[in-house]
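Fold these two proteins, one after the other.
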Amino acid sequence: MIRGINGIHHVAISVDDLDRAEAFYVEALGFELLGRYDFEASELGDSILGLETGAAKSLMIAAGNVHLEVFQFLSPEAASYPGDRPVCDHGYTHISLDIEPEHIQSVYDQLAEAGVRWHCPLTGEIGDELVMTYGRDPFGNVIEIQALEPDCYYHISRLPRWRNRSAE
């Protein structure tokens, strides 16, 4: 890793309704709302965003070992795509939620009730190294849920600063 880089701080997504996003990510998923902030169009903001007249309201959410930043752009008008953006298109493809294996089915069911449209049922069986699937949040963004067995070489516990918050 390049000296000075600590890792990924947050992933950002754009939605069409910030209140619905807060209801989904904070109330339904149980992540922690750290703050709301708005920004008006400015020359500096436009240069950072690569937009003209970029203005938005947003949320910063603590999501376990990473933050999620959610934007609702007020200007310029955001493009909507018919249907769902294919995950093979260039750009961010999904966010993945780390789930304890014994809770994967329950999380799958609860997220379906909260508005997630699953691409397919869970793959694998409890006890397999990996049980997972992809779905779409209420805004069409792709979410993966995955349950890795602790001895899997890319289990979240191998991250240097990871701690098991669900055991606290």
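Now the second one:
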Amino acid sequence: MRQVMILPEQREKLLENGRVNLAHRMEDGNTVDFFPVVKLFNPCGAATWWISEMDEDGDTVFGVCDLGMGFAELGYSSLSEIAALTLPFGLYIERDEHFEARFPVSAFAAQTPPQR
């Protein structure tokens, strides 16, 4: 059975964070360094996404993407594209049900973020 990628309460928090940072960008160009709300990962590989915001379109998400190539990037991803990935053995990208962020999203973009 395929897991729900983002829970409704996580979606609301992501949208709220997105609205806050949109307002900040419009006001003075600065943004809040939010903690990731959700962690998505490849269960048979090294790719991981730590997502802290979502745009009003409900698809564009902001956070850190680490495709397992030795570096992580802070930027935007498409949730529908992540959800559409099909992996070996009929697996899909999963949500880490036990994830609790202890650091802001910028820490996850660092070369060796603490306690990934």
